[in-house]
Design a protein that fits this description.
heterodimer; A: about 750 residues; alpha+beta; 7-stranded mixed β-sheet; 5-stranded mixed β-sheet; 20 helices; 27 strands; B: two-stranded antiparallel sheet; 5 strands
């Protein structure tokens, strides 16, 4: 019988982040003299001209610190540097670098606020600047919130330009010419007589040259790569099976581990027996880890089988045990004492509803798993005074800082090999799987051990999208929407996730009402109130958190009001929206889909939805057909505006991929609970969209918005309400609860 | 136990009831073959045995009835198979984790039906999950590869 312990909530991260921040204050602009994380590792004759560009006699390395979880950001980052550096990025090595405050993400912090993204007023902008500084102070290196391009596009171009001008200065010093007489092309400085000097030849001299930081960025009209179709730098590897993911790491002598955690997340162990597992072939040991036990074995399959054979008496966590009880808890939290925010309160809703014909509706969105196709994994080698980690993560600084807590080995002696992920959708914003892998490897120092979660562990120990409900009241008059009052109720995502990886920001939980309070509608009487239900199981960020549920509630209720008013769904939205960028995407999707003129025929329906998330307005129109085999989605039109598009081929992939993600989960995915345990343990019960269900897509990016924003998430949120609206048009049935296959069959 | 993978013969000292998926990945370090579900629901582990697409998570080592081909055996970065070239031309992959299985499934389809309709593609490819939603480009790439193979 093994030792028994209680599993404590982890709280060390806040402290360690603050310490890092104290050291790092204010120093990390590329354009200023900076402590450059690359300088410490340089060999003789090697130059790190900015934190993002390293040049040695052997080649050029571009540091691309945002994690590529499939969204293609590694390539985009490289292309942004390459545009100014004048190199072919496919000839460079891409390296995510080590976690460092130089790579902080300010945008994701500034976005997590109680101001709509379209609010460019003084207060909103001032607080955004403040949050940027908090991120800089704490060295927060998140990849998330569709923020990478928005946050880095200027920094990376500036890094490329600084490196280029410094190389030119080195060439000028060597030749006695003026920098102004030199130009650059394809990895070379070109002298006036046409002589080429390779950047790599200039590495040693450039290292001794003061970086030239006073550089002007090239205008878009001069770009040769950005904004034009180009090939993702990982596309050959990903089409030939040669891309190595975290789960593919292998070393001679490496051992393999599997985890068996409490089916009720957050519960503890009363007792366990490792004997049956230890008696199995290829099993080396059984180790206690956070949330349960792990088996170390000679291969993954031995470890999986032995983990199943562990005998454990689990103790339940202290939140409601079943989905029915959880929904009841949510419903009970629709009360004043749970009121968390009222970030939208225009006109006088109560007066408008008083005596009017009130339209009421309740909507529900279930818990959802991230279920990236690559199950979570991490490989760790613990040695006397150092720890090496190979894994995919969206929070490298958090992973690095976790090592000290588990092993006592300082963050400075941690090497993190950040690898591409086989999907994430927000799951790798948490690092629980890496903590377990560190605990496992620490039990056998000197041996690299790869920990792989089974699909069943991955599904049942997610930090899922929280369940979420909303209640709407509204009224219409003279063919117009007159009042809309939306109460949205969910356990606090900010309280759960931010508490695990960062700090819980002060003030209301804006994510609880993202996609609702921050929509650019000018409804005369308009109110959005957030209610934070008591915590249940820990929850996480799921592709467009908050908005992935709230947009369904908000747009569906607006559709009901517009229908009651007898107005046209597109025309009434256009009339109500008070934001030029948003109006334009609605007008565009109307033109693309021939909204006004279409006669789409019998047994069919057309729906529309709009959302403003992550600074990007997106409008989607969907056509469906009722067939003998069930409902079929035929066509999807998407118009969006993320400002300048750097990477058009990938941008289109993000729009369609995000919409498919939104549609597939709305069609047929939910996590339900019995006795605290997730009932859907694999893809047989959590399918998403499959190829035969995939509609034809028509997309347009307007490129007119002033600010550059990202596209990983924005097309997700409008997909579900647009589909529900189309189903209503085809069948007369309002679907107010996801997944929709509770009510209709899909072909 | 003797196992032929991509034309190379291996003497494998692993249990006969071990799934081919794990024999390939952990035993032979053939990592294009991906673990996604272990229950034949996602298709990420698809390989060919004797030319037919199968889910390697469902075939035990002892039951392997022919030569095994994985994506590494179909083509390489320096010598792309025409289907891989189509996947690159259409920039199909996002995270890329499912694409080994997708391409192996597509190779099986095109060997049986050189000129597949959309319905043929739906029928053959719907067992392969893609969580990133690359399906529209998979469809386009299969048609493109079919054309290229007919013209070759």
């Amino acid at each position: 019988m093994g030792r028994v312990r209680t599993i404590a909530r982890r709280s060390f991260l806040i402290g360690s982040a603050a310490i890092v921040g104290g050291v790092a204050f204010g120093a990390y602009f590329v354009t200023r003299p900076t402590p450059n994380p690359l300088l410490g590792d340089l060999g003789e004759g090697e130059a790190a001209l900015t934190p993002f560009v390293k040049i040695t006699p052997d080649g050029i390395t571009l540091i691309v610190p945002r994690a590529d979880v499939g969204q293609g950001i590694a390539s985009t980052q490289a292309m942004l540097i390459a545009e100014e550096l004048d190199i072919d990025p496919s000839t460079a090595t891409l390296d995510p670098g080590q976690p460092h405050p130089a790579y902080f993400n300010g945008t994701v912090a500034a976005d997590g606020l109680s101001f709509p993204g379209w609010d460019e007023g003084f207060v909103a902008e001032t607080v955004r600047d403040l949050m940027m500084n908090v991120a800089r102070l704490s060295g927060s290196q998140f990849t998330g919130g569709s923020s990478s391009t928005a946050d880095l596009h200027e920094t990376l171009r500036r890094a490329g330009a600084t490196a280029r001008e410094t190389l030119k200065a080195a060439a000028a010093a060597r030749t006695g010419l003026s920098s102004a007489d030199l130009r650059t092309e394809n990895g070379h400085v070109v002298l006036p007589d046409g002589t080429l000097i390779a950047y790599t030849e200039l590495a040693a001299e450039a290292a001794a040259t003061e970086p030239v930081t006073d550089v002007a960025l090239r205008p878009a009209s001069d770009w040769t790569r950005l904004g034009k179709p180009y090939q993702r730098l990982d596309i050959v590897a990903k089409s030939t099976g040669t891309q190595s993911y975290g789960i593919d790491v292998a070393f001679p002598g490496m051992l393999h581990a599997a985890v068996r955690a409490n089916p009720g997340r957050g519960g503890s162990m009363a007792s366990y027996s490792p004997d049956a597992a230890l008696a199995m072939q290829g099993v080396r040991s059984v180790v206690e880890v956070d949330e349960g036990l792990a088996v170390i074995a000679d291969n993954t399959w031995f470890a999986f089988k032995a983990a199943e054979a562990l005998q454990v008496d689990w103790l339940p966590p202290d939140y409601p045990a079943s989905s029915a009880e959880m929904w009841q808890a949510l419903s009970d939290a629709h009360a004043d004492e749970f009121r968390n925010s009222r970030l939208r309160d225009d006109g006088d809703v109560e007066a408008a509803l008083n005596g009017a014909t009130v339209i009421e509706a309740e909507y529900r969105a279930p818990f959802l798993a991230h279920a990236a196709l690559e199950p979570l994994s991490a490989t760790v080698l613990v040695e006397d005074d150092s720890v090496t980690i190979w894994t995919a993560t969206q929070v490298p600084h958090v992973v690095r800082d976790a090592v000290a807590d588990v092993t006592g080995i300082e963050a400075g002696n941690v090497i993190l090999h950040a690898l591409p992920a086989g999907g994430s959708f927000g799951r790798r914003l948490d690092h629980d799987y890496v903590v377990q892998a560190i605990q496992i490897a620490a039990s056998m120092p000197g041996r690299p051990i790869k920990t792989t979660w089974s699909r069943e562990e991955d599904m049942t120990h997610d930090f899922p999208r929280p369940l979420h409900m909303a209640r709407g009241r509204g009224t219409v008059a003279d063919g117009r929407v007159l009042a809309c009052d939306l109460d949205t109720i969910s356990p606090s995502l900010v309280g759960s996730w931010f508490g695990r990886v960062f700090i819980v920001p002060p003030g209301p939980d804006a994510m609880l009402v993202w996609g609702a309070f921050d929509q650019p509608y000018a409804i005369p009487n308009y109110r959005v109130t957030g209610y934070a239900a008591p915590p249940m199981m820990p929850v996480g960020s799921w592709r467009s958190p908050g908005a992935c549920s709230n947009t369904f509630f908000h747009e569906s209720f607006l559709s009901e009001l517009i229908h009651a008013a007898g107005a046209d769904p597109l025309e009434e939205r256009l009339r109500l929206i008070d934001h030029a960028d948003s109006r334009r995407v609605l007008e565009a999707v109307g033109e693309m889909s021939n909204w006004a003129g279409a006669d789409i025929g019998p047994e069919r329906g057309r729906g529309i939805a709009f959302a403003y998330t992550h600074g990007v307005p997106v409008a989607e129109v969907i056509d469906v057909t009722m067939t003998d085999r069930g409902l079929r989605i035929d066509e999807v039109w998407i118009a969006a505006d993320c400002g300048t598009v750097f990477d058009p081929v990938n941008a289109e992939a993000q729009l369609t991929g995000a919409a498919i993600f939104g549609l597939g989960h709305a069609m047929n995915c939910e996590l339900t609970y019995e006795n605290h345990a997730v009932q859907q343990t694999n893809f047989d019960a959590f399918e998403g969209m499959r190829l035969h269900q995939t509609p034809r897509f028509h997309t347009q990016l307007l490129g007119l918005a002033e600010r550059v924003r990202g596209l990983g998430e924005p097309a997700t949120a409008p997909a579900a309400p647009a589909l529900a609206d189309a189903i209503f048009a085809a069948t007369g049935q309002r679907l107010r609860e996801m997944p929709f296959n509770r009510s209709v069959d899909f072909a | 136990m003797l196992l032929t993978v991509n034309g190379n013969s291996h003497d494998v000292d692993l249990p006969s009831d071990m799934p081919l998926l794990w024999v390939l990945r952990d035993g032979l370090n053939v990592t294009s073959v991906k673990y996604g579900c272990g229950i034949a629901q996602c298709g990420a582990c698809t390989v060919h045995i004797g030319g037919d697409a199968v889910r390697s998570c469902q075939v035990t080592l002892g039951d392997v009835w022919g030569d095994v081909t994985t994506l590494e055996g179909l083509g390489t970065p320096d010598a792309l198979h025409v289907i891989q070239a189509a996947w690159i031309e259409h920039q199909v992959a996002q995270c890329g984790y499912c694409q080994s299985g997708q391409i192996m499934q597509a190779a099986d389809l095109l060997a049986r039906i050189p000129e597949p309709s959309d319905d043929d593609i739906d029928a053959a490819m719907s067992g392969n999950l893609c969580r990133c939603g690359t399906y529209p480009r998979i469809r386009a790439a299969v048609h493109s590869a079919a054309r290229a193979m007919r013209e070759a």
